[in-house]
């Protein structure tokens, strides 16, 4: 092929990518307050404190990566937002803001974020999926897309977004997981979550905007008998299976192995991880078009916290 033809082909490829948009990357980030500022983590365990700092450093690194990617928008999945019993919700206020504690158990100091919502994308997703995917929209204190009051956010959204340096330049779309995730039949949601993730991935292929996805997720909440959910021997195997999924891009590690432990492990973020698997698999070359990296997978407190990235090869 002649150099002029190569030049035209490269230019055309870049133009197509710009017109069609793309999903530039996906990330798993914890929402435990420990990640915000480990200096305020109330522990005398040296190993736990070291792990907390590793998690914090990894979250800051994800923030820098997202800044370098310069996406038009961030789609964030939260398991601790305002939720419907059955439907996945997309928030429809033009502005969203909220706060979180640095340890999730004590008094201030707080951290806060204020973000602009891409209500056009949120509305499109609601209309695109609707009842066929159990997706609906929710507005607060006013008409959808018009309310002058901000939609309220808390730790599930605020903590991951806190690590994004240029939020004033990037719009945000928030997807809230339904509260039926708390039920013991959570594994039965797996096919639905894979399909929804796949459909979201295909949606962004057809859009003229670039995006990154952030899955707000903590892992097993049963690592300690002193924690609010007690101890379970399923906790560590669950966290290990999630880590193996990231490192090997092996769906079975997540949808079979981790699924077998999730009820006893009590992970708030599991549904978001499964949805992400479906989204990544929707790429033109499937899951193999992604390069994954596991930055941290620890439980400095009673719950597991994982930081991971999935970037295009």
UniProtKB/TrEMBL annotation:
<dbReference type="InterPro" id="IPR004183">
    <property type="entry name" value="Xdiol_dOase_suB"/>
</dbReference>
<dbReference type="Pfam" id="PF02900">
    <property type="entry name" value="LigB"/>
</dbReference>
<dbReference type="GO" id="GO:0016702">
    <property type="term" value="F:oxidoreductase activity, acting on single donors with incorporation of molecular oxygen, incorporation of two atoms of oxygen"/>
</dbReference>
<feature type="domain" description="Extradiol ring-cleavage dioxygenase class III enzyme subunit B">
    <location>
        <begin position="26"/>
        <end position="304"/>
    </location>
</feature>
<feature type="signal peptide">
    <location>
        <begin position="1"/>
        <end position="21"/>
    </location>
</feature>
<keyword id="KW-0732">Signal</keyword>
<dbReference type="GO" id="GO:0008198">
    <property type="term" value="F:ferrous iron binding"/>
</dbReference>
<protein>
    <recommendedName>
        <fullName>Extradiol ring-cleavage dioxygenase class III enzyme subunit B domain-containing protein</fullName>
    </recommendedName>
</protein>
